[in-house]
Amino acid sequence: MPAAQTVKEVVEHVVVGTATERENAIALHDYVRENVKFGFNDYFDAAQPDYTLAFGFGHCNPKSRLMVTLFRAAGLESYQHFVVIPKDILKDAIPASRYWMIPAELSHSYVEVEVEGVWCEIDSYIVDTPLLKGAQARLTKEGRSLGYGVRVDSVNTWDGQSRAFSQFDRSKMIEDHGRVDDLEAYFRSEKYRNHAFGLRFNTMFKLMGDFGVAPINAHIESVRQ
Predict the structure, then answer these.
(1) In degrees rounded to 5, what are phi and psi of residue 47?
(2) Considering its fold, how many domains does the chain have in total?
(3) I want to staple 39 with a disulfide (CB 3.0 to 4.6 A). Which of 127, 178, 187, 217 is the partner?
(4) Does residue 157 sit within a domain?
């Protein structure tokens, strides 16, 4: 199926009226996982769902926002849940020339969704399959447990009834900020970690535009190869 450009188009193409709630939830999950590659776009965490879809790249927070929007559009109760984690998972996913600027603690989000009466916590849609395979192969060869945007034991498949994480790991959680609906308020709060030199990454990436995003995405693409 060709990649859709809007949330409405994805729901129309992916959700099947005769399918079970669980089957539709998994189909939406898999669509986001493969059609929005792990990477970065010009609006960083502030990217709107339709923009993330059309751009075709997003990291944890815009992909989580997109996933919640799609689940809700399909009639599922869903929330974006923020935590603080160490930046180590992004080592070598971000070029060394930029990695040093990232704060030691990052705001990461996963999704809570209720499917057929069961609440699931997932971020398995964040890392596309080519990247997961390439990153895990490198980690195994290097004898490392995490980096390149994944853990060596990450999963990006989901059965629609359980937890599944490609990036989050409870053992690495520094703070739990819970469900967040008002993203702009959260970005302005002291809880939000994604900033450097007094500037939020949302603003920094918008100012840099393609000049800032393209080299990072090209570096991540080399891991897929």
Answers:
(1) -65, 130
(2) 1
(3) 217
(4) yes
Q: Residue 86's closest CA among 170, 2, 16, 29?
A: 170
- Is residue 3 over pLDDT 80? no
Quote the CA–CA distance of 209 and 215 in Å, as a whole number: 11
> pLDDT digit string (tens) for 160-207?
999 999 999 999 999 999 999 999 999 999 999 999 999 999 999 999
Tokens of 49: 């769902």
Assess if residue 204 is contained within a domain. yes
The token pair at 180 is: 């967040």
- DSSP SS3 for 191: coil
Domain membership of residue 85 as a residue range: 7-224
User: Residue 98: which of 224, 225, 203, 201 has the closest Cα?
Assistant: 201
Q: Is residue 115 a part of any domain in this protein?
A: yes
Closest to 192 in 3D by CA, of 82, 46, 35, 39: 82
What is the C-alpha to C-alpha distance for residues 220 and 224, in angstroms, rounded to an integer? 7
Q: Residue 1 domain-assigned? A: no
**Burial call 110-119: b when 16+ CB within 10 Å, e when fewer:** bbbbebeeee
**CATH number for the domain that contains residue 89:** 3.10.620
Instruction: State the sign of the Cα–Cα–Cα–Cα dihedral 211, 203, 56, 141.
Output: positive
